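Researcher: Quick test of sequence recovery. Tokens follow.
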């Protein structure tokens, strides 16, 4: 049986990188996308190859829908060249940016950036990938704990992620005849450079969030990549159209 292949958007750093490594540890080959961090992406590929897996990095602007047809062609060529295949198994829609701004001060430009990357981009990239996803495959959309609880400054971001959670249920319904399961993973507060590294670098914010989390700390990338990798294992094939929050128990 041929190895499974996962496509992870935004896989050069943070949660995407961690997910790529965790999947490789479970024997899944990885195609990861990067926007500008080519060197970081190449380092992830090298790490996976050192583990004995196969990996490929492709450039993608996840917020530019006009580029998706060309990306699909590059992906198809890469699959053929590296795996002698025309399809892959798992799509992880992870790429994203953070904007922290009060509702009253959120600009249209900030809103559009979030919309293009977190909602419109996910919608139409997934659509473009459908011919390349193998029947019986899986899709994981990355959302946020902020769709369940509210923290000031994230209204636009959380609105996009709420849209993704609704879209996930429709994808699960409409792709069911192809045996494709679609789920959401919703991380809580994580120490990464996401959103300017606020959770990681702001000691007061970090302490507050830790105090509101049942397990007594904020998350790290290792807390999330394994969740996504686990959901893509065969043992979890019957989980579909679900929102899995990985937050350590925030704001319970």
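Model:
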């Amino acid at each position: 049986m041929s190895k499974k292949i996962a496509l992870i958007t935004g896989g050069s750093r943070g949660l995407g990188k961690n997910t790529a490594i965790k999947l490789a540890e479970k024997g899944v080959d990885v195609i990861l996308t990067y926007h500008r961090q080519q060197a970081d992406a190449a380092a992830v590929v090298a790490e996976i190859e050192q583990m004995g897996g196969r990996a490929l990095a492709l450039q993608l602007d996840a917020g530019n829908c006009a580029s998706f047809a060309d990306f699909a062609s590059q992906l198809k060529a890469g699959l053929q060249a590296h795996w002698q295949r025309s399809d892959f198994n798992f799509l992880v829609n992870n790429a994203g940016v953070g904007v922290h701004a009060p509702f009253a001060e959120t600009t249209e430009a900030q809103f559009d950036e979030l919309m293009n990357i977190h909602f419109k981009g996910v919608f139409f990239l997934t659509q473009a990938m459908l011919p390349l996803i193998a029947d019986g495959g899986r899709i994981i959309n990355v959302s946020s704990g902020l769709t369940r609880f509210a923290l000031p400054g994230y209204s636009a971001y959380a609105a996009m992620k709420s849209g993704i959670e609704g879209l996930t249920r429709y994808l699960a319904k409409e792709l069911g005849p192809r045996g494709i399961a679609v789920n959401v993973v919703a991380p809580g507060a994580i120490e990464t450079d996401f959103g300017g590294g606020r959770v990681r670098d702001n000691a007061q914010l970090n302490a507050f969030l830790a105090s509101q989390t049942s397990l007594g700390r904020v998350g790290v990338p290792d807390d999330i990549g394994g969740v996504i990798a686990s959901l893509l294992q065969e043992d979890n094939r019957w989980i579909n159209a679900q929102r899995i929050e990985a937050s350590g128990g925030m704001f319970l």
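The chain has one domain: 5-245.
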